[in-house]
Amino acid sequence: MDFKWLEDFLSLAETHSFSRSAEIRGVTQSAFSRRIRALEDWLGAELLSRDSYPVMLTEEGRAFRETAEEAVRMIQTRRAEFRSRARQGGPEISLTALHSLTVTFLPHWLMQLQEVIGPVASRLKPENFDRCLIALTEGGYDFFLTFHHPQVRIPLEPEVYPHLVVGQDSLVAVARPGRVALWGDRMPLLAYSRGSFLGALARIAQAQPGAPTVYVTHTNESSMAEAMKSMAVEGHGIVWLPRGLVIGDIAAGRLEVVAPELPMEIRLYRNAARARALPSRVWAAAGQLADGYAKSE
After folding, report:
1. pLDDT by residue, tens only, the chain of 297 residues
2. What residues contact residue 260 under an 8 Å CB cut-off, 6+ apart?
3. What are the CA-CA distances from residue 113 to residues 46, 97, 103, 118 (Å)?
4. Which of 51, 169, 254, 297 has the most other CB atoms within 10 Å of its CB?
């Protein structure tokens, strides 16, 4: 059983609305529904009456709610104790970030931060977009590093989770050199899993004028951009990837660009409720770097 299923269920017991709870939990409604169903399957009991609106708990659901509340309370209390002990070794910032950004943008950006404020201890959680949102809003993380495009909504209230634009990247369609001539008018596409963040960006990019005609030949259920890149290098098809992830492969001739690019921002979100001294210093330094970056554009 996944611990977040309990938190999902408690949210639904509070709101009585799949759509509202999905928004609060920072996931799509379909993903949220799957997680509730997975919890019911694991327990072997129907927790919800889906025939009514608003959604109501069954008798088993009402009984399990007390158990879930106690379990979540005990686990969160113990987790807070463990983290408090770990922090006694010195202050640190906690970041969650999209996988691809942890291997492209983040290392250099952290070095720039340290040039401004000195050495900074950090704790990093690379995740997919939905889990990054949960880590920021519910998991006790200070910052969230992500891509942004105006056509893909990020469900974070700006007053609670302000952001800085700390960089720029683009989504680029790449393929192994020489493959396009072999494929002709229809190219095999390496697709992201349904509901993934990069998948949503890729659909926007694919709809642009000048994008190639494609058909899906492979879907990566983990939505790991690094794995998709390996497939493209081997010649399996074209894939939309952050340019920062493939810039070396393009320069080395392992991949070539085959379509117009989709510009993206790199955003740093902050959990403003976590107003500790070190995250506040990091936020101020990140703002200085962002201002300098904006002036250089």
Report:
1. 788 899 999 999 988 888 888 888 888 889 899 999 999 999 999 999 877 778 889 999 999 998 898 888 888 777 776 666 555 555 788 999 999 999 999 999 999 999 999 888 888 999 889 889 988 988 789 999 999 999 999 989 999 999 999 999 999 999 999 998 899 889 999 999 877 899 999 999 999 999 999 999 998 876 678 889 999 999 999 999 999 999 999 999 999 999 999 999 999 999 988 878 888 999 999 999 888 766 666
2. 208, 209, 210, 211
3. 50, 16, 17, 8
4. 169
CATH topology of domain 3-86: Arc Repressor Mutant, subunit A (1.10.10)
User: 91-297: which CATH topology?
Assistant: D-Maltodextrin-Binding Protein; domain 2 (3.40.190)
The pair of three-digit structure tokens given for residue 186, joined into one six-digit string: 């229809």
Q: At what angle do helices 18-25 and 3-15 cross, to 10 degrees?
A: 130
Domain boundaries, the chain: 3-86, 91-297
Q: Any residues with CB less than 8 A from the CB of 277 and at least 6 apart, and which?
A: 91
